[in-house]
UniProtKB/TrEMBL annotation:
<dbReference type="InterPro" id="IPR006059">
    <property type="entry name" value="SBP"/>
</dbReference>
<protein>
    <submittedName>
        <fullName>Alpha-glucoside transport system substrate-binding protein</fullName>
    </submittedName>
</protein>
<keyword id="KW-0732">Signal</keyword>
<keyword id="KW-0813">Transport</keyword>
<comment type="similarity">
    <text>Belongs to the bacterial solute-binding protein 1 family.</text>
</comment>
<dbReference type="InterPro" id="IPR050490">
    <property type="entry name" value="Bact_solute-bd_prot1"/>
</dbReference>
<dbReference type="Pfam" id="PF01547">
    <property type="entry name" value="SBP_bac_1"/>
</dbReference>
<feature type="signal peptide">
    <location>
        <begin position="1"/>
        <end position="22"/>
    </location>
</feature>
<dbReference type="InterPro" id="IPR006311">
    <property type="entry name" value="TAT_signal"/>
</dbReference>
Length: 441
C-alpha cells in the first residue's frame, strides 16, 4: 500500500470508497484506479447536456469508471426532462440517475414518488462542503433528494474585447450604460447583442436579472413562489425594460426574427465564432466553455465578461442555477447510482470538469486552482462568496409546465414577447394565466 493509500485508510467512509478527499477535507490528486468495487455494474445517467457540456461531463463519468469499475451510459433528454423521464419510467426503462436542471422538476419528481433519498454519506458531504442553500434546493419535505453538482452564475455578460475597444467603450456598471455601450458597438458596424431566442430559457434569464435588480429580492422570492401575481406592476415594469432592448433592431443581431432563429450555442458563435456578428452575449458562466472548446478563445483575453449591471438604481443581481443529480427508484442499479452521487459530492469529481472549462461547482472545498483560467476562478469565487444570498433561477423554481418546458409556459410566452414586445401588460396577463394553471396543477 502506497503512503497515500495508507493515509486514506484513516479517513471517512466516503474517502475510503472513492479516494476523493484528504483527512483534512481538502481536495487531493485523483487516486488513479480506485478499488473497482463496482466492477461489472452499469448505470445510466440522463441529462440535458449536449455538445461541449456532454463531452466534459463524460470525463467525470470516465473518472468514476476508472475509480469504481462501474460502466456508465449517458442519455441526452433534451430540454423536456420531465416528459422524457416520465415516459421512460412508464416504459420500464428508467435511467438510474438524472441530472435535473430545475428545482421545480426535482420537486415534481420527489412528490410523484420517483426518487430515492440520498445516502447519509452524500448528505454528510453536502453538509460539510456546500452552503445551506444548495441543500435546501435539493430537499423536499425534509429529505435530501438532489445533489447540486454543476452550478451556474447567471449574472454575467460576455463580450469580445476587440468589439468594445473598436467602439471605444468600457464594460458598463449600469443597465442604461450597457445599452449606451451597445449603441456604440452598433454604430461601429457590429450589432451589439446576440440573443438566443430559439431557446426560451435564455429569455427567462434576461427577465430574472432585470426583475431582481428592479424589484428587489423580496418580490423576486414572492414571484418565484407565485405568492405575487405576474400581473403585478413590478412584472410589467421589468417586461417594459426588456422590451426596449428586444424592439431595437440595431442592438440585436438579425433583429427579432434572427434572435428567434438563434439557439444558445449559436448566440455564442455570433460573438466568438470565426465571423463575428455581434459584440456581446448575455448568459451564464458556461458561455466560456463554448467559446473555449468550440472556437478556441482564450478566456480573459479574447472572451471576457462583466457582471450583469444594476437596473434603475437597484443592486446588481446575482442569479444562479444548477443541475442536481437524483436517483430514480425505478432504476436498475441503486447501489452504483448511490455510489455515483457520493462521488459527485466530492471536490475530486468537481475538479475533473473544472479543469475542462465551462463549469462552476457549488462545492466550497474545491480548490479554485482546479479551474483553468483566472476568469473562471473569479466567477467561481463570486458564486461561493455569495453563499445563501444568491437567488436561484426563478423559472427553475417553477413547475415544469410553466418554467421548464420547451414550447410552453414562460419559455414560449417570452419568445412571443421577443417577437412582439409592444404590449408588456398583455404579456404579463398571459404569464399569470399560465402560472396559475401550472402552480395549481
Amino acid at each position: 500500500m502506497s503512503p497515500r493509500r495508507t493515509m486514506l485508510a484513516g479517513c471517512t467512509a466516503l474517502a475510503l470508497a472513492l479516494g476523493a478527499t484528504a483527512c483534512g477535507g481538502g481536495p487531493v490528486a485523483p487516486a488513479g484506479g480506485g478499488d473497482k468495487s463496482l466492477d461489472g455494474q452499469t448505470i445510466t445517467v440522463a441529462g440535458v447536456w449536449s455538445g461541449a457540456e456532454q463531452k466534459n461531463f463524460q470525463k467525470v463519468l470516465d473518472a468514476f469508471t476508472e475509480k469504481t469499475g462501474a460502466k456508465t451510459q449517458f442519455v441526452s433528454t433534451g430540454d423536456n426532462v420531465s416528459t422524457v423521464v416520465g415516459s421512460k419510467i412508464e416504459g420500464g426503462n428508467a435511467p438510474d440517475v438524472v441530472m435535473v436542471p430545475q428545482v421545480g422538476v426535482l420537486q415534481q419528481f420527489a412528490k410523484s414518488g420517483w426518487l430515492t433519498p440520498l445516502s447519509k454519506t452524500t448528505e454528510k458531504s453536502v453538509d460539510g462542503n456546500f452552503a445551506p442553500v444548495w441543500k435546501n434546493y435539493g430537499s423536499v419535505d425534509g429529505s435530501l433528494y438532489g445533489l447540486y453538482f454543476k452550478a451556474a452564475h447567471k449574472s454575467t455578460v460576455w463580450y469580445s474585447p476587440d468589439a468594445l475597444d473598436q467602439a471605444g467603450v468600457k464594460p458598463p456598471a449600469t443597465y442604461a450604460d450597457m445599452l449606451k455601450a451597445g449603441q456604440a458597438v452598433s454604430d461601429s458596424g457590429l450589432p451589439a447583442f446576440a440573443v438566443a431566442g430559439e431557446d426560451g430559457w435564455t429569455l427567462t434569464d434576461w427577465f430574472e436579472n432585470i426583475y431582481l435588480s428592479q424589484a428587489g429580492p423580496e418580490k423576486y422570492d414572492q414571484l418565484a413562489a407565485h405568492k405575487l401575481k405576474w400581473t403585478d406592476p413590478s412584472v410589467v415594469n421589468a417586461l417594459t425594460t426588456l422590451g426596449k432592448l428586444f424592439s431595437d433592431k440595431e442592438l440585436i443581431a438579425g433583429g427579432q426574427k434572427g434572435a428567434l432563429a438563434t439557439d444558445f450555442p449559436g448566440s455564442v458563435e455570433k460573438v466568438f465564432g470565426p465571423e463575428p456578428e455581434a459584440g456581446m452575449v448575455y448568459e451564464g458562466d458556461f458561455v466560456a466553455g463554448v467559446a473555449k472548446d468550440q472556437f478556441g478563445k482564450k478566456i480573459g483575453e479574447e472572451a471576457a465578461f462583466f457582471p450583469f449591471p444594476a437596473v434603475d438604481g437597484g443592486k446588481a443581481p446575482v442569479v444562479s442555477g444548477g443541475d442536481a443529480a437524483v436517483v430514480l427508484k425505478d432504476g436498475k442499479n441503486q447501489k452504483a447510482a448511490m455510489a455515483f452521487l457520493e462521488y459527485l459530492a466530492t471536490p475530486e469529481a468537481a475538479a475533473v470538469w473544472a479543469g475542462a472549462g465551462g463549469f462552476l461547482s457549488p462545492n466550497k472545498k474545491l480548490d479554485l486552482a482546479s479551474y483553468g483560467d483566472d476568469t473562471t476562478r473569479e466567477t467561481a469565487k463570486s458564486l461561493i462568496d455569495a453563499g445563501d444570498s444568491v437567488r436561484f433561477d426563478m423559472s427553475d423554481q417553477a413547475p415544469a409546465a410553466f418554467g421548464g418546458t420547451k414550447g410552453a409556459g414562460e419559455w414560449k410566452l417570452l419568445q412571443d414577447f421577443l417577437r412582439d414586445p409592444s404590449d408588456p401588460k398583455a404579456t404579463a396577463a398571459r404569464l399569470e394565466d399560465a402560472a396559475a394553471k401550472a402552480y395549481k396543477g
